[in-house]
Design a protein that fits this description.
The chain has one domain. It is 62% helix and 7% strand. It has 10 helices and 2 strands; from the N terminus they run βαααααααααβα. The chain has a two-stranded antiparallel sheet. The two termini are 27 Å apart.
């Protein structure tokens, strides 16, 4: 006999799984970076990574993103079990789960590997956090749109708001990341129009900040979906091994005199 972990979610939830509480802490890192002149606003609006590259704000930046990643993992797991209980197909549910977990992993990588110290690793983390984070919410939206009979907690405008935020997030990601790729490609004609040129660098940075805030808010919207939950219990559940001979349930209650 073996054991497996089982998450049991029931009842009515009074607490919100929102990650929006991380937003003020990120702006705190920005404020400290401005005060100690790690970033110079006269040279343009900084990217998020620039604000978390130097101490002491880098310590706050790492702590906030690691905490946010841990909360995101918990939300993704609870959501996975909720969708499973709603009858969502296993492969669809696992695809959604892994995109969310990789987003959380990328968030932690961004916080722990500052751009000035380990730029390639930092960029990999940013890709996972932004691209797969956006994909995670698109998969959630398409699932709720195409699956008939799937519960739709909350008012109908929440669904439209999610669609708007996902669409806006996608547009801003393209506006922020694609121009950098074009700049690295050193295409002379495209350099004239790309957003990441020195003149428009601040606009690209603002897009990055906006995407981060949108992803935090989209995670916060799960408070609506979890409003029917009271709490979740993680416990070990016995699992029988089919390869081993099974002992009858009543054998343990057989008197010793009958066994002799």
């Amino acid at each position: 006999m073996g054991y497996r972990w089982h998450l049991d979610c029931k009842g009515k939830l009074s607490t919100s799984p929102s990650l929006t509480s991380c937003i003020p802490s990120i702006y705190l890192s920005f404020a400290i970076a401005v005060v100690n002149r790690s970033v110079d606003l006269q040279k343009g609006f900084p990217f998020i990574s620039n604000c978390g590259s130097y101490a002491p704000q880098s310590c706050i930046f790492s702590q906030v993103l690691n905490t946010g990643a841990a909360l995101a993992i918990w939300i993704c797991i609870v959501r996975y079990h909720q969708l499973r209980d709603w009858g969502v197909k296993t492969w669809q549910n696992q695809l959604i789960l892994w995109s969310g977990l990789l987003c959380a992993l990328g968030t932690s990588i961004v916080g722990n590997f500052q751009e000035k110290n380990q730029k390639p690793t930092h960029l990999v983390g940013a890709f996972l956090a932004f691209i797969l984070g956006n994909l995670y919410f698109w998969l959630q939206f398409f699932l709720s749109w195409w699956t008939k009979g799937l519960p739709q907690p909350g008012p109908r405008w929440i669904r439209l708001l999610r669609l708007s935020f996902c669409s806006l997030s996608t547009i801003l990601i393209v506006a922020s990341i694609l121009p950098r790729a074009l700049n690295w490609a050193k295409v002379p004609f495209l350099r004239v129009i790309i957003l990441y040129s020195q003149r428009m660098r601040s606009a690209s940075a603002a897009c990055e900040w906006a995407v981060a805030m949108l992803l935090f808010v989209l995670f916060g919207f799960f408070a609506v979906d979890f409003s029917s939950l009271h709490g979740c219990t993680l416990h070990l559940e016995p699992q029988l091994d089919s390869s081993l001979p099974q002992t009858p349930t009543g054998s343990s209650n057989t008197p010793m005199s009958q066994m002799l």
